Amino acid sequence: MPRSKSYNTYSNLQRPEFRKRVDELLLKFERDFYERSAGADGMLDKEKFDLELYKRHNVETMIRIGLKRAVDPLIANYWATRDPQLCKEWGLYGAEEGRHDRMFAGDLHKVGMTDEEIYAIRPTFATELLNGYFYYTMATEGPLAAMISGFYLEYIAGKTQPDWLDIMEQHVGAANTKGARAHLALDDDDDHVDMVWNLIMRVIDDEADEERFVGHLIKINSLFVSYFVEVYAATVLGAGADPSLLTQAAPAAAVQTNLQTRATASV
After folding, report:
1. Alpha carbon of 183 to those of 96, 110, 144, 165: distances in Å?
2. Structure pTM?
3. Burial, 244: exposed, middle or buried (Cβ in 10 Å; 0-12, 13-18, 19+)?
4. Which among 90, 79, 58, 73 has a CA at the least distance from the CA of 183?
5. How confident is the model at residue 131 (pLDDT cuts 50, 70, 90)?
6. What is the DSSP letter of 47?
7. CB atoms within 10 A of CB 51
8. What's the pLDDT score for residue 94?
């Protein structure tokens, strides 16, 4: 039974053959992340848990939700005269997701962070680059990339976060990750992965559109990998005191991931 006003109302998965191709690509993203990104395998190793990385990851999750809260109304507005039903459904989705930052705030409070400390932290350069990509593509071609980011996050979070939380809870306690768990449960109960997919498929009409989708997906994945590289460098590797190192880390990781994916993936 749906838990919010934003849930999957479609009886069938749209463009299922294309979805199979995208699923394979997303699984490759996940494999490559754990194999190639320094520190990524530590997210699955209880002996390598780092509290500062845990805090910074949750803070950045809140920051990204807040920034996307400003983007989603622009997506809905774009479709207002082009596809009113899509406008309505994306508006409900954005309104629901945009409130979820406080779930993570609750978890951070339990490990000693105040709202003042949380909101004093600036976004990573990787997050700034990601949001720049949203606004650039909206200005030049429309909101497809920003919509695809929603699907990417729903899918990847569902694949990775349960395992990460299993490790984190061994250190901070299950009572202190209730916000993150609640976020996953709501997304699962309301079938957000397939819901967002189906919303996007309303505007995917042909093979050229599918190729645009894949191109955006590869770039978005590259930017999310660069976020982990930057946060890991700032916390575990102790590079946070040198801003010049961090501003190099994010774009370098994004470009490298993008090139590697395009070189090795059959997309």
Report:
1. 11, 17, 24, 12
2. 0.92
3. exposed
4. 58
5. very high
6. G
7. 13
8. 96
